[in-house]
């Protein structure tokens, strides 16, 4: 079934939107696990909605909350609008964004078709938030695609409770070799952490339709992600 925009309620009582996609109920034979999909700096745009739709086709419920709603509700940017996206990123309170993620998890957890297990998949900004959620929340699995700034949050590594898959682009200028080395050194010996280094590709290699999209690398990363989530969420 096609996805739809829904309203969520924040802890303050204010409402914000999320995109929700669910499996075809006619094909579904059991309750579904869920995936929280976390945006890049461009908002819940066509790429993010497409990620949700593909997870729904694979049998998951998927929800992508609008993390920029306090600044500009419903923003949907293209990668050519980079300056506007950076302004939104700079104005984002990441602690409030974590709270918004928890509200989205609470919403989907209350749905009657929810199986009780949820993973989180984030890209860029969302990749860092996915890492933080693996350390701070009760998600059952987390996947980070080229998360930006994880090397500055490695103090949370010992709090990781969820299995974590990191996709790191070897040629990512936003996560250079020194940052990659710090991440690897801090996480390589933690049980449940898996680090996939993708050679020869840069940031946003999995953004379908983007200027830096690398189909083969993206397909490999996405296949690894899907297998990881199916194993951890018991699909």
Overview of this protein structure:
With 235 residues, the protein is α/β, with parallel strands linked by helices. The chain has a single domain (4-232), classed as Alpha/Beta hydrolase fold, catalytic domain (Rossmann fold, 3-Layer(aba) Sandwich), CATH 3.40.50.1820. The protein has 6 helices and 8 strands. It has helices spanning 46-57, 82-90, 94-109, 125-136, 177-187, 215-232, and strands spanning 4-9, 15-21, 32-38, 61-65, 114-123, 141-145, 164-169, 193-198. It has an 8-stranded mixed β-sheet with strand order 1-2-4-3-5-6-7-8, sandwiched between helices. A hairpin with a 5-residue loop joins strand 1 (4-9) and strand 2 (15-21). The longest helix has 18 residues, at 215-232. The radius of gyration is 16 Å and the shape is globular. The relative contact order is 0.14.
Provide a quick synopsis of the model.
The protein has 235 residues and is α/β, with parallel strands linked by helices. The protein has helices at 46-57, 82-90, 94-109, 125-136, 177-187, 215-232, and strands spanning 4-9, 15-21, 32-38, 61-65, 114-123, 141-145, 164-169, 193-198.
């Amino acid at each position: 079934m096609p996805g739809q925009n829904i309203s969520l309620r924040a802890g303050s009582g204010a409402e914000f939107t999320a995109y929700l996609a669910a499996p075809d109920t006619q094909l579904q034979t059991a309750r579904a696990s869920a995936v929280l999909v976390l945006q890049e700096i461009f908002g819940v745009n066509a790429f993010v909605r497409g990620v949700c739709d593909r997870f729904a086709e694979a049998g998951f419920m998927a929800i992508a909350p609008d993390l920029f709603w306090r600044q500009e509700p419903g923003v949907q940017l293209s990668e050519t609008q980079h300056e506007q996206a950076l302004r939104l990123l700079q104005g984002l309170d990441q602690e409030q964004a974590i709270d918004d993620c928890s509200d989205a998890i609470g919403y989907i957890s209350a749905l009657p078709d929810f199986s009780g297990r949820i993973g989180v998949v984030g890209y860029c900004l969302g990749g860092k938030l996915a890492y933080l959620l693996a350390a701070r929340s009760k998600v059952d699995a987390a996947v980070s695609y080229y998360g930006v700034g994880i090397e500055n949050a490695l103090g949370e590594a010992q709090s990781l409770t969820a299995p974590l898959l990191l996709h790191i682009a070897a040629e990512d200028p936003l996560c250079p070799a020194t940052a990659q080395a710090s991440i690897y050194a801090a996480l390589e010996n933690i049980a449940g952490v898996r680090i996939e280094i993708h050679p020869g590709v840069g940031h946003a290699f999995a953004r379908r339709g983007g200027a830096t999209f690398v189909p083969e690398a993206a397909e490999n990363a996405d296949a690894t992600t899907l297998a990881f989530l199916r194993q951890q969420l018991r699909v």
